[in-house]
Amino acid sequence: MILVLVPDAEQAAIDRLRQNIEAKGLLVQHIHGENTTMLGIAGDTSEVDQESFLRIDIVDSVMRVSDPYKLANRKLHPQDTVIHVKGHTIGGGNLTLVAGPCSVESEEQILSIARDVAASGATFLRGGAFKPRSSPYAFQGMGLDGLELLKIASRKTGLPIVTELLSHEHLDDFARDVDVIQIGARNMQNFSLLREVGKLKKPVLLKRGLANTIEELLMSAEYVLSGGTADVILCERGIRTFETATRNTLDLSAVPVLKKKSHLPVIVDPSHGTGYWHLVEPLSLASVAVGADALIIEVHNAPQYALCDGPQSITPEVFHTLAQKLRRVHEAISN
Length: 335
Ligand code: PEP
Ligand code: MN
Fold this sequence. Notes:
single chain, 11 helices
């Protein structure tokens, strides 16, 4: 951290500030420029409140030079995190496909889709039981009954379950029954939920918030990791921009940026990222080309009747062809 001092700072005030910082166990280096005087602070500044320095008369501005996240940071953990769930893997050079409907609607629906996507190479089943809908009048998901149906589909296909936890009240149910706990875009900064979910020590799929930066996503991952789990999957699912041609703007540059900054595996959701089923194929192929470890794709056996997100859901047939193409792109970029 660097403190830039005002030009007329008196030496006595500089010395006092320096002593205060050193008293926190940090090292201070005085830097004299031609027109500017700065104090460089070294050591663990993660608990130092940057804003508090701005209240000191002789401090003009404060600059952070190191990342505020530690556990998620590749600099402190150079090797890739590889997540293992019931014999399936996310990260470590594999291409993992997570597929299933936006929402669980019936036993017949989830079982039929689970069987189809498994036959096409998906190794995880997604499906919402608790849905974060913009309207309180829209279908809210089947709740715990939906979770029971996911368990049946998982038992019959061997696919581990990925499903969204909406609130604290279902932490115990998810700890018992869910293989990968999804934290949705709307809850990315629900810090108390992030802390609690981290304590379960289960893999967490953390979605980027609707209008959040990459650093904010990594700070949220830090909350989950600091709770106790080592397994967090970072999900790019599109962000809000001025563009209206797509539901969200899928930020594919986030993939290589996240891979550089963090050791955690990265998954892309081209379904919520675009909002249209015909855009799912090109953006999935592009996601693999830019280095995504996994994709999470909405697949529905009758998208025109889906209770949620039908327009962005692909059919099992389209998923089958897409999975083959994805494997070819993955092979082409693997060495
Ligand atoms: C979902 O995966 O069904 C979902 C609601 O996603 P997001 O949180 O990215 O909107
Ligand atoms: Mn959805």
